[in-house]
Amino acid sequence: MSHAPGPDLIAIPGPSPVPARVLNAAHRASPDIYGEALAQVNLQVMAQLKRLAGTSAHLAPYIGNGHAGWEAVGANLFDRGDLALVLTSGHFGRSWAEMLEGLGVIVERLDFANLPPDPARLAARLAADPEGRIRAVMLCQTDTASATMADIPAIRAAMGDHGALLVVDAIASLGCAPMRMDDWGVDVLIAASQKGLMCLPGTVFVWFSDKAAAQGATGLTSPWWDWHGRAGAGALWRFWGGTPPVQQIFALSEALTMILDEEGLESVWSRHDRLARAVWAAGEAWAAGGSGIRLSVTDPAARAASVTALTLPGADALRAWVARECGVTLGVGLGAPDPAGALRIAHMGHCNAGVLLGTLGAIEAGLVALDIPHGPGALEAAAASIARSA
Ligand SMILES: *Cc1c(COP(=O)(O)O)cnc(C)c1O
Fold it and tell me: Which family does this protein fall into (predicted)?
């Protein structure tokens, strides 16, 4: 008999759980979109988003998903035939590189398999580009498939005085892990509403520095994608290139108030770090004794704060079991060498110790039910990790 009826637990890395407060904030009839009240809320959200990213730079919002953010960056930064250096650490970085190629950008990849970029390799490549052909260095702070965390300050340092722009996809990490765009010298940053921002899917944000802004439009910059008009908008419709996503603006306002003004950004980062460590403690316990289970990223410093990837024989059957019997949805083994034998546990955005321990407990039950070999003590280890870091 299933134990699933009751609240669903969604532990997938996006769309992440949306707090009831945020849903309720969106649940309203559209006001006058030419009225002052909505324009003010929009301006306040733009200011909150700059605080979230640690920047006083420019911000262009778009209606769209993360892929739309990728396209926005491509269309504003490059002309056909320009050279971009993409540091790939998994499925998302590789998809981004393909999308840029589709726009006509020449893409060179430095591939790090499913591990974070090595700054030394980047430095060596840039040293071999004295004429400055490489226009931008691009990477995911967290590649959501490999569940890695790049060291952005180390990447910036490795760029030395090469003139390339530093472009970071923080879609799976903004609002989960530290990001100090201005202090770290990030030129362009992308994040979408449905991950660490705890909102509905449908909006994406591109922050860009004065240096990135200074180059002006390129041959790829069509009017709708042009970030200058949006970032400098005086009228509400210009921010969004047409009708604003009214209900989403209210949802964003609520979510960003929760993150920035109620819990506080540093506390939000700390919560993600502490929850991640509890998952890693469980994963290490399951891995004991040569069970065949292992955390996909070995070095804790290279692991994401918002999602953990596990190699786990029988993962597909386990995911089906915990969904059917416990009402818990886990992430698929996207981009793993054997996707059917891998899964991902998200601890992204609206997540706390109760939800996380419930998710881990459901996995433990599934391992037992399906006779999947696993080391003992995972739940005790996770609980102890939570207790120690409370
Ligand atoms: C989810 C994600 C994307 C893609 O976002 P969509 O909204 O699915 O288009 C891109 N990059 C990263 C790092 C992501 O996590």
Answer: Belongs to the class-V pyridoxal-phosphate-dependent aminotransferase family.
